[in-house]
């Protein structure tokens, strides 16, 4: 009987030694994760590396999850353009991360030469409502001796062909390479615009006599789906003092 008691006590001691209280785990049992989203605005896929080991490739508009990363540990995340030499010239983003406990870090990354954006970014900066459009002016000089005349223009947009001031939106200042506020489109109507020199108030025309320009055939275009293709880039070219505004303007996919 005494021998049985000793055995029972020994077993209870072992259970106590190897048991933990509920919810109390060794640190190595905690894990974190990372979600990396490649913007649909990106022009290329991206190769993702964690501590020098390739974790996968993300196409534009897609994402990748890196899971079971030991909580509290740090890792070196590098992202390059896909199908390219993994050199500094093709580096998109580079950062050190500490993996959270039972949680996931979410990162948005972009690489767009058209938008002149590369690296980690806040995607809400370029968000567009589904019934709206945002506009950016891009300036190109076709003669190297001519400098950019203005860093900012005023722009007035019109739903449908402009006839009266009532057809238009208020005049909005627009800095080169930055996007405007969102303009709400009227279903079935094209969007026109006028460019204005903020210093003189004069309308900008091209090298003919045009003052009004159709931004894009939003009313009938089968390409445009509100909010999906809603970032529009207008390119102003300058040659020998004359201006030319491209048509159609360049649509950039958002979603």
From TrEMBL:
It comes from the Bacteria. This is DUF4397 domain-containing protein. It comes from Niastella vici.
